[in-house]
């Protein structure tokens, strides 16, 4: 299965946070799954870190790569799809993840209560 991790899932994974459910922990750990991290999530993490709302390891991108996560770039098609989504969600980062999941046929790992309102696969 191709899994797109929401930003909070990435952060909980990096911190080994108990908020990350066992179901999601197993899905991320399963070597048969491909775990993707959107450039939009890295952008969100970077912004929150820069303004002091989030503390992350200095080399967190290297850690993600070492642990087998794959980069998902934001393509023009993704950006255009986000434009056409209904405004269930106003967070631009979450809207981008939804658009990417729709276009690329990905399953999103999230606990966000709004994302399921879109026609997108959620684990």
Structural class based on helices, strands and sheet pairing? alpha/beta
Q: Which term fits the overall shape?
A: globular
Largest sheet: 5 strands, parallel
Tell me the CATH architecture. 3-Layer(aba) Sandwich
Distance between the termini: 10 Å
Number of helices: 6
Strand tally:
5
**Helix-residue proportion:** 40-55%
DSSP strand (E) fraction? Answer: 5-15%
Average predicted local confidence, pLDDT: 96
State Rg: 14 Å
CATH class: Alpha Beta
Structurally, how many domains make up the residues? 1
Q: SSE string, helix = H, strand = E?
A: EHHEHHEHHEE
The name CATH uses for the topology is: Rossmann fold
Low-pLDDT runs of 5+ residues are none
CATH superfamily: 5'-nuclease
**Oligomerization status of the protein chains:** single chain
Relevant terms:
123 residues; alpha/beta; Rossmann fold; five-stranded parallel sheet; 6 helices; globular
Topology (SSEs and partners):
Blueprint: E1 2-5, H1 7-15, H2 22-29, E2 34-38, H3 39-50, H4 60-66, E3 70-72, H5 76-84, H6 92-104, E4 107-109, E5 121-122
Structural overview:
- With 123 residues, the protein is α/β, with parallel strands linked by helices.
- The chain has one domain: 3-Layer(aba) Sandwich (Rossmann fold), CATH 3.40.50.1010.
- It contains six helices and five strands, in the order E-H-H-E-H-H-E-H-H-E-E.
- Strands 3-2-1-4-5 form a five-stranded parallel β-sheet, with helices on both faces.
- Helix 5 crosses helix 6.
- It is globular.
- The chain starts with a strand and ends with a strand.
Summary, kept brief:
This protein has helices at 7-15, 22-29, 39-50, 60-66, 76-84, 92-104; strands at 2-5, 34-38, 70-72, 107-109, 121-122. By secondary structure, it is of the alpha/beta class.
């Amino acid at each position: 299965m191709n899994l797109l991790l929401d930003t909070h899932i990435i952060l909980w994974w990096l911190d080994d946070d108990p908020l990350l459910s066992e179901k999601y922990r197993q899905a991320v750990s399963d070597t048969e799954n491909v775990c993707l991290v959107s450039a939009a999530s890295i952008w969100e993490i970077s912004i929150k870190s820069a303004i002091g709302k989030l503390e992350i390891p200095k080399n967190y991108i290297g850690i993600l790569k070492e642990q087998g996560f794959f980069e998902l770039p934001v393509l023009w098609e993704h950006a255009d799809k986000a434009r056409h989504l209904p405004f269930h969600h106003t967070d631009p980062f979450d809207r981008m993840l939804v658009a990417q999941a729709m276009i690329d046929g990905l399953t999103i790992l999230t606990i966000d209560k709004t994302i399921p309102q879109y026609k997108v696969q959620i684990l």
